[in-house]
Design brief:
Strand content: 15-25%
Distance between the termini: 6 Å
Number of helices: 9
Bound molecules: flavin mononucleotide
Order of helices and strands: HEEHEEHHEHHEHEHEHE
Number of strands: 9
């Protein structure tokens, strides 16, 4: 389904101003606007494993199986989480125009790549919360490193937990030094195992373009630190630089006390494709909500790509809930920059090829 149309339509007009216009935007303008925002969702290794097709007042979001990580994500779980994040963003973009999105997740049992159908018919006033969330779609960045030693407000953590529940997922905050250290140790074990697996290493290398690359996908060298920042307990990040000296230089050379931040585990009660999509929707709501309060997130999926470690997290940290992602949350000065493919590369107009 998701064949790249080649960007022939890159000269398309910018997203519609939507509600600010005197005349209501056309369905085509709304579609372009929504897709241009949805592509800013987070995705594993910035694979952007999605494409969209549109049909009157309906947008279809497809998983692009050609962008699935075959070594790290054979079941497509992370691909579906990524698509879920794009779905949440598409729904929010429609809300930003005052439309009420009606979404059906995995509506066609015969086509598992059709992640969702989103249509819009009704209108309702945009709330201040929705406006704030939407304002973060393009500003939010994944953080990779330590955080400032500033505690997060219990009110924010409660809002994040409630937000996850709205999308059918659970955000568990991992508290207590022992539990935090134990989860950090699982991530370290995972990272060591991944670095020894040549197939996975080669896959990661393929998704980390060199500095200055014109590529609009993958994890750019402007988005990870050249030298790993350690915390206590230490939550090692992925080896994006792979000994090539790539990455951002440290902001300061002065040693400073920095922390791992608040550690959370995003889980779902079941482990079907719909749960993965819902986890992705919850993830994006969490990330955008945190971002409205100046809080960034570091994501760790390393142990969840190894069945035995995922099972160990499920039984030891999540009361049997299926772990979908480990997050660390905190405040930090962010300089990371990311990239996205042009909306015209992912928006296919005919419903079926
Ligand atoms: C399912 C999923 C898993 C991810 N796992 C990791 C991870 O293990 N390490 C990491 O640094 N970032 C991880 N990320 C973040 C992506 O790398 C990031 O979203 C992508 O590079 C785009 O950058 P941005 O979030 O700054 O826009 C993950 C994102 C998703 C959706």
């Amino acid at each position: 389904m998701c064949r790249d149309p080649g960007g022939a339509a890159d000269a398309r007009p910018e997203p519609a101003e939507g509600a600010a216009r005197p005349n209501p935007p056309t369905a085509e303008e709304i579609t372009r606007y929504v897709v241009a925002e949805a592509v800013w969702a987070p995705s594993v290794h910035n694979t952007q494993p999605w494409c969209f097709s549109a049909d009157e007042q309906q947008i279809r979001l497809y998983a692009d199986a050609g962008r699935r990580l075959t070594a790290a994500d054979p079941d497509g779980r992370e691909m579906m989480i990524s698509c879920g994040a794009a779905l949440f963003t598409a729904r929010l973009a429609l809300r930003s125009l005052g439309y009420v999105p009606e979404a059906r997740v995995l509506p066609d049992p015969g086509d598992p790549t059709l992640v969702a159908q989103v249509s819009w018919h009704e209108q309702a006033a945009v709330t201040e919360d929705e406006r704030r969330l939407f304002s973060q779609v393009r500003l939010r960045r994944t953080h990779r490193g330590a955080f400032d030693p500033v505690p997060l407000s219990p009110k924010l953590l409660a809002a994040l937990r409630e937000g996850a529940a709205r999308d059918g997922a659970t955000l568990r905050i991992v508290t207590g030094d022992g539990q935090r250290a134990a989860l950090a140790a699982v991530i370290e074990t995972a990272e060591r195992a991944l670095r020894r697996d040549s197939e996975r290493v080669q896959e990661l290398v393929r998704w980390t373009p060199p500095p200055g690359s014109p590529r609009r996908d993958g994890v750019p060298a402007t988005s990870y630190p050249a030298r790993a920042e350690h915390t206590d307990p230490d939550f090692p990040g992925r080896d994006f630089a792979h000994g090539r000296g790539w990455g951002l230089p440290p902001l300061t050379t002065a040693p400073s006390f920095r922390t791992a931040g608040v550690v959370g585990l995003l889980t779902t009660a079941d482990d079907r494709a719909t749960d993965w999509v819902n986890a992705g929707q919850a993830l994006q709501r969490i990330l955008l909500t945190a971002s409205t309060r100046g809080v960034a997130a570091a994501l760790h999926s390393q142990p969840l790509e190894l069945g035995w470690l995922r099972e160990s997290i499920r039984t030891r940290f999540s009361d049997g809930g299926y772990p979908q992602l480990v997050l660390r949350l905190g405040t930090v000065i962010q300089v990371a920059a990311s990239v996205r493919r042009a909306p015209s590369h992912v928006l296919l107009h005919s419903p079926r090829h």
